[in-house]
Amino acid sequence: MRALLLLAAPALLAACASPLPRPDPQQAWIELRTEPGELLMAEKIDGKRLNDGRYFQVTPGAHRLETSYRFEVFIGPLLNSDPVYMLCYLRLDYAHFAAGQRYRLQARHWQFQTESWLEDAGGQRLADGQEWHCITQ
What we know:
Layout: H1 2-17, E1 28-33, E2 39-45, E3 48-49, E4 55-58, E5 61-73, E6 84-97, E7 102-110, E8 113-120, E9 125-128, E10 130-136
Parallel strand pairs: 1-7
Antiparallel strand pairs: 1-4, 2-3, 2-5, 5-6, 6-10, 7-8, 8-9
Organism: Pseudomonas oryzae
Protein name: Lipoprotein
């Protein structure tokens, strides 16, 4: 079993380090952004699981984007000195994705409350996301 893990590790690391593909000009490209130390990953488009969680690329029109968002919450020294690790699933619906356009899906949190939104290339806020489900890890 250990040998199998050692053989699989380089392949997994290579997949993480691979460059992003070129955006298809016939589709919309959505990059993901959050604060340093947090992780926002693309999970599903219209209910279909993705192979690469670093970005979304969608056909023009309406789509539901689903992401996973991992972050730490520091409660403070009175209750617990260790951070609470959170995993939240977020959804965002947007009806006007345009071919060749670039978008940015951002997420942040304040304590246990999450916020996500979609921006166009100029930084204009286009749609707000919803928190679907959160768990502690």
